[in-house]
């Protein structure tokens, strides 16, 4: 289905970007998955859970520093790709905003880790994890995606993740080495970010962004930032909540499942990222989304079914840990995310941003995020890890229902405007 659409619309460029985006996602999620079973065995569920808890805090700051530019930046760069002067101003405007947000974030995390007992016992762990925030802020994926040149940063990202993977296997040998995980992870992100920033200079000049441009970038991206923060409320917050109420060991178990599910979930992202710059310029966006939907739903159903049937065996093979295997039912529940999330992202990650319906997207994601937090806190206290799994799946289903509802409303308006 997607192939037929691409054949009619500059398929070579989109297919090429898709290929490199797949490699990019593989570097981001598949390579870390290679170290996952090893880290769980060497560090143990409790220490691994502590590392994941610190990482979940860093994710909140990632969302803050990104400020929605992963979507709005891509869109603006795509629209101005043939105007080097405007392209350069937008680029440096976004970089400047991100640098300021990094400084603000650093002062916030310093305040948190030195003033709350839950964090002050492992200050180094949280500060080392913050390096991921710096690295991702420097890595201009949004720029290369906008100009539809993913080759360089894909290679850079793969290189940095390979370095991280090798360091883990070579230097982490015992439980006490747990602080090396965020250190190596942050070094990989920062190294990739610096190289990505360097290669971007090939396509731009230095142009000082004016105050009006900075203000415009912030205004246009604010709703996306709020939306992405809402996303973090039903992703990173789940690990965070379990860490507060259920302890590091349960966090380690849950994170072991969540890492696998996120890798599967993010398998849809290269498709959406490759299509997004092109779709943003098309007049019949709703019609294109309708053609893609059956393909996405079919893939999601296949993956969810495989996890439901073979989930226990998959967990036993990957982790070989009796404690983690005893919770394999949680993994089967989370498997439904492959269907619900892949489908709802079609609307909330691809369609609404491409139509600049940032407000609609924000309403949907805030609703899901707030309900996830409210029910997550209550359910985590009463039913622990199983309750949290049901809350997460229910949130993804709610996002699908809301996303499809507003998509159909927008599709109807689009069809009526074409008739008139």
From TrEMBL:
Keywords: Cell membrane, Membrane, Transmembrane, Transmembrane helix
Membrane-traversing stretches: 20-40, 52-69, 90-114, 126-145, 152-172, 184-204, 225-254, 260-280, 292-319, 331-352, 364-383, 389-407
Top-level taxonomy: Bacteria, Pseudomonadati, Bacteroidota, Flavobacteriia, Flavobacteriales
Protein name: Flippase
InterPro entries assigned: Poly_Biosynth_Transport (IPR050833), Polysacc_synth (IPR002797)
GO cellular component, one term: plasma membrane
Listed Pfam families: Polysacc_synt
Places the protein is found: Cell membrane
Top-rank taxon: Bacteria
